[in-house]
Specification:
D-Maltodextrin-Binding Protein, domain 2; 10 helices; 5-stranded mixed beta sheet; 281 residues; 17% strand; 11 strands; alpha/beta; 2 domains; 4-stranded antiparallel beta sheet; globular
Amino acid sequence: MRIGVHPNNLHLRLASVWPGAFADLDPIFVPYSEGRDTASLLEAGVIHVGGTGSTPPIEADARGLGVEYVGASAPRPANGAIFVRAETDVESVAGLAGRRISLIDGSFHTYLLARSLEAEGLMLDDVERVESGTRDSLAELLEGRVDAWVAMSPRLEKAIGRTDLRLIVRCGATIPNRSLFWSLARIGLSSAEIAGIVSELARIGGEIAADPVTAAHLLAENDRSGTGADAWGQIVRSRDFSVVSIDAPVLAEQQEEADTLFRHGHFDRAVAIGRPLQATK
């Protein structure tokens, strides 16, 4: 089983260094740079399953790749926020109209921004989305090159409490912000493999929750952002690492996101969300 691992999916990132993880599936952990690459790696057969936020599998379905959902994390309301400079005249999301917003476009950042804008009668086209890529979004915000920044862990925790920033949105109830574990129908995972993936993710999640100190040190040892074990410990303790099989409510959340992004013009056609992964061999 070739399992994709990128830095922003902490569950699979920890699994790749967790003793005995996925042993029954003969795992090969395949590192890559970011979640938006998951669909192309699945399409090319480089990986068999990956984990991302909610938006990349919808992007894959929009490309006609035939996403098959495997499992889902609990909602993660703390992992996502929108900041502006404290000195700005932007007091709320309504003030973002016409402004430049730094984000990882095509990730859950896009959905968080769309839902936040929609609540104020605005659309994605009412702001200028600026792809953050590998740039230092915090520096760009503080230097005035962008007007707002959609942030996530671990940089979000470093930004909260800064006196030169103003927090105007937390994920909270705005979006569920789950991690989704998914594949493509063409890969043809078996029912036993599907059950094994979900079971092992749930088992590892339970061990992470029971031993956050070890998890934090593993993240710090394999980190390029300069985030230390204490900061990772705070992040691990704030997160629910439980994982469950895909069910109708999770698929309904995904469909709601797909419909929202279509309504905002992010997709040029409606996207129909698929079914939970079934046995294919």
